[in-house]
Amino acid sequence: MSQTLLSVRGLRSGYGAVEVLRGVDLDVGAGEIVALLGSNGAGKSTFNQTVSALLPARAGSVRFDGRDITRAHYRDVVAAGLIHVPEGRRIFPNLSVLENLELGSFTRARANRAANLERVFGIFPRLKERVTQLAGTMSGGEQQMLAIGRGLMGEPRLLILDEPSLGLSPLLVEELFGLVGRLHAQGLAILLVEQNVAQSLEIAQRAYVMENGAIQFSGTAAELLATDRLRQAYLGV
């Protein structure tokens, strides 16, 4: 693995009396694409929220580029370049496409806003066509483009994509995974958090499989595809 960018050790977190994460270890290297896989309810989104400082850790540590961010404010996490595109897109429906994108550079990369807008429009020409449209009137696929574009506006060093293919048509899912591959090819480190095991393993260099808030398997994509238990549970073969 390349130089470690994100290092998570023994992470525990949850809601009220319910502990969801039970001692999770995970690493993402600089420029690497890593998949965090698991079924609905496995704890993946709780992991993302805890790493992003939207949910407090109960135990363990989160380090980003060597810095301990376990107890950091979420704005400081974003300012460091760890940017989370949440499940469900979470765009602002009553704001325009442009306004949503500009909010992506509120904390980080504000000085480069114009250049980053052009970059996002180059990746997503459809967003440029709809720049004045209210985000809530767009299709699900367009809203997902907007959510990812908003994340890119902050010049992420690591982009966490939480269930980006959820609710998309098969054709749009293919386009989405192609986009993730292209962003990675440009040198962006990505943590791809997905239920779509087969397509995630096609583009990820390494992967972790989470069940009941704990990592059950980890390794290269090829190693996981050769694991009988994973193939039977997630691929039906």
Descriptive report:
This protein is of the alpha/beta class and 237 residues long. It folds into 2 domains: 30-56 and 71-81 and 156-236, Rossmann fold (3-Layer(aba) Sandwich); 89-154, no CATH class. It contains 10 helices and 10 strands. The strands form 2 sheets. It has a 6-stranded mixed beta sheet with strand order 6-7-8-3-9-10, sandwiched between helices. Strands 2-1-4-5 form a 4-stranded antiparallel beta sheet, covered by helices on one side. A hairpin with a 2-residue loop joins strand 9 and strand 10 (214-220). The longest helix has 16 residues, at 170-185. The mean pLDDT is 92.
Brief synopsis:
With 237 residues, the protein is of the alpha/beta class. Helices cover 37% and strands 27% of the residues.
Quote the CATH topology of the largest domain. Answer: Rossmann fold
Major sheet attributes: 6 strands, mixed
- Round the Cα radius of gyration to an integer and report it: 17 Å
CATH level 4 superfamily of the largest domain: P-loop containing nucleotide triphosphate hydrolases
CATH architecture of the largest domain: 3-Layer(aba) Sandwich
Approximately what portion of the residues adopt beta-strand conformation?
25-35%
Question: How would the blueprint of this fold be written?
Answer:
Elements (H helix, E strand, L loop, with lengths): L3 E12 L2 E12 L3 E5 L6 H8 L7 E6 L2 E2 L5 H7 L1 E4 L11 H7 L9 H11 L1 H5 L10 H13 L5 E5 L7 H16 L3 E6 L2 H7 L2 E6 L2 E7 H5 L2 H8 L2
Parallel strand pairs: 3-8, 3-9, 6-7, 7-8
Antiparallel strand pairs: 1-2, 1-4, 4-5, 9-10
Helix pairs in contact: 3-6
GO biological process, one term: L-amino acid transport
GO molecular function: ATP binding; ATP hydrolysis activity; branched-chain amino acid transmembrane transporter activity
Protein name: ABC transporter ATP-binding protein
